[in-house]
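We were asked to recover a plausible sequence for a given structure. The inputs and outputs are reproduced exactly as logged, with field labels preserved.

PROBLEM: sequence recovery
POSITIONS: 231
GIVEN STRUCTURE:
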């Protein structure tokens, strides 16, 4: 199976370096993605929006011969959902890593601090304590050293979704910051951020307790969880 790995904010394809080998050992082919504007600190990000990120992954999907699995971490989950909407017949499953599908007309996060048209990795104090579980000082230093500013429009653009066949594509949510039982409760309570997930017809959950970046804090377990989701 071809598995496309979509990173979250501030990260490039190398953020999957400790996860991809676990998936490949199970016989799959991985395709870690560096999204437009995340190539380097010097990249021009000023005019890059959410649609550019979605279109880049759609182009990769179109280049592969068979249906693929999309894995989206954090904001990369919104990119994955946009790709499902664009190519519902080409996606075998979506795996959301501490993420989920965003509903039509919503933005990933338009409250992050923008500096000169881009969003640098903020100070750790900006994040919730749950985000930072298991992200020790060494991992924080590594993350900050490799972080690339996020194109501001990717965070603030409203996603446009048109094809309701997206609800037929199976989904697995890997829950890290809080357990999947809480997600189920949010769905039952009709919470706004889970309404799109609630409309998907086939949803599985895998609990992987850690912070918001399991590719750094628990990469082996994350790889195993992705393999289990695909299986």
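RECOVERED SEQUENCE:
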């Amino acid at each position: 199976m071809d598995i496309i790995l979509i990173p979250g904010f501030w990260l490039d394809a190398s953020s999957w370096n400790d996860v991809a080998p676990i998936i490949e050992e199970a016989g799959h082919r991985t395709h870690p993605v560096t999204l437009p504007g995340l190539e380097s600190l010097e990249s021009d990000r000023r005019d890059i929006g959410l649609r550019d990120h979605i279109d880049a992954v759609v182009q990769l999907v179109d280049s592969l011969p068979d249906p693929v699995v999309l894995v989206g971490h954090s904001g990369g989950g919104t990119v994955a959902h946009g790709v499902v909407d664009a190519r519902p017949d080409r996606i075998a499953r979506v795996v959301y890593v501490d993420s989920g599908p965003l509903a039509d007309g919503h933005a990933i996060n338009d409250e992050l601090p923008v500096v000169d048209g881009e969003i640098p990795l903020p100070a750790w104090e900006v994040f919730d304590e749950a985000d930072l579980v298991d992200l020790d000082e060494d991992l924080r230093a590594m993350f900050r050293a490799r972080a690339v500013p996020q194109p501001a429009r990717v965070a603030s653009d409203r996603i446009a979704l048109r094809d309701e066949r997206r609800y037929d594509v199976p989904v697995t949510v890997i829950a890290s910051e809080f357990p999947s039982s809480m997600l189920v409760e949010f769905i039952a309570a009709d919470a706004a951020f889970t309404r799109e997930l609630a409309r998907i017809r086939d949803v599985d959950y895998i609990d992987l307790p850690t912070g918001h970046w399991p590719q750094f804090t628990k990469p082996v377990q994350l790889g195993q969880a992705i393999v289990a989701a695909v299986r």
